């Protein structure tokens, strides 16, 4: 078990809370390890999905559960 959330989890949570194209793109590129593999449509789809009514709350609740388990 982790003593604290990983830096990547914190970046992902921030991107979900502030879903600008650059925030999401930056996190996804880091998760892939190779930025050239990132399809811009994935970034756009994530932003559209997270901005749906209620979707951000559902998504963030799941992330917070993961975040809390890390402690």
Can you put this structure into words, describing what you see?
The chain is mostly helical and 71 residues long. It contains 4 helices and no strands. It has one domain (7-69). It has helices at 7-17, 21-32, 40-50, 55-69. Helix 1 (7-17) runs antiparallel to helix 4 and helix 2 crosses helix 3.
- Major sheet details: none
Low-confidence stretches: none
The number of helices is 4
Quaternary state of this entry equals single chain
Give the C-alpha Rg: 13 Å
Number of domains: 1
Can you give the helix content as a percent range? 55-70%
Q: Average pLDDT, to the nearest integer? A: 84
Count of beta strands = 0
Question: What is the straight-line distance between the termini?
Answer: 8 Å
Structural classification:
mainly alpha
The string of secondary-structure elements, in order, is: HHHH
Task: Name the overall outline.
Answer: flat
Portion in strands: under 5%
Which keywords apply here?
69% helix; mainly alpha; 71 residues; flat
């Amino acid at each position: 078990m982790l003593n604290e959330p990983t830096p990547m989890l914190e970046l992902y949570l921030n991107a979900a809370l502030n879903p600008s194209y650059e925030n999401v793109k930056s996190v996804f590129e880091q998760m892939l390890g190779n930025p050239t593999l990132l399809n811009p449509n994935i970034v756009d789809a994530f932003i559209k999905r997270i901005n749906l009514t209620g979707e951000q709350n559902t998504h963030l609740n799941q992330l917070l559960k993961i975040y809390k388990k890390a402690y």
